[in-house]
């Protein structure tokens, strides 16, 4: 059994002082009965629940706490996946094994061989192809004697809302959920927002390197490597620095010189929890279309209370646009940019997001 005190101390050393709800979650995780895998052991022992389903608001520390628990276990029989990566792997394996009887069973056995814990982060069923297999997959993993830890922003009853064949999905996953603890991480401080507010706050004139930005994103969002440098918006491809899970990092110059439009900005605002924008340069009237696009983007994201972190490369906000033809529009935009950088905007954004939910 893992040591809850060690986990709490390690989190404190990272600057995250666990609150009551997080400590309760740590204790629940430590109460999981994790045994080394050997054949048929689940038939020989009553080893308690098949795992734990952790849900709660964005930024509550679900992933942070779970990874601290797994780090404390310090075992070589643990597999961790982001949900999207897991399902991509499963579909690929099913295609490879499509000619055999019950390929999902074979894939699950391969997935769980000598594995005592599978951690699935950001569990979010949205695709009908995933929905038709995920419940059966989780049941098969449990039958192999492998514990499952899942994190999600949604209660299990709210998964795959309005999806095709949802009743079939619910019937399948409810069987799995009967044998697993469901733990809500109650609302509180959004640790990501707090850390992002602090990041680069001491010297706004500093030019932050891409390496430092990526390291910051990796540390706060659990990204191990850059996932993609391309985003598809309304069936068109655009370059980006990073797109992973619910995070988008774009560059001011490269993105807004492309013929993007309001519908693209609405998509971004609704799709991503956090948007990072770097590589700003001063723009004059020779590039007026580019600054018009950026102003439209800010209008939409400001209206939608989007959380954005800007890296201005030491450029004063009011000097990003140095022309005169749309100076009246820029005055409003620069005012919004200044507000969107503040702690008050980001923390108020957090409250608004909770009220929407």
Q: What descriptive keywords fit this protein?
A:
357 residues, alpha/beta, 47% helix, 15 helices, 11 strands, five-stranded parallel beta sheet, Rossmann fold, four-stranded mixed beta sheet
Oligomeric category: single chain
Q: What is the name of the CATH superfamily of the largest domain?
A: P-loop containing nucleotide triphosphate hydrolases
The DSSP helix count reads 15
> Which overall shape is indicated by the principal axes computed on the Cα atoms?
globular
Low-confidence stretches: 351-357
Strand numbers in spatial order across the main sheet: 2-3-4-1-5
Number of domains in the coordinates? 2
Overall mean pLDDT: 85
**H/E series, N to C?**
HHHEHEHHEHEHEHHEEEEHHEHEHH
| Strands, total number | 11
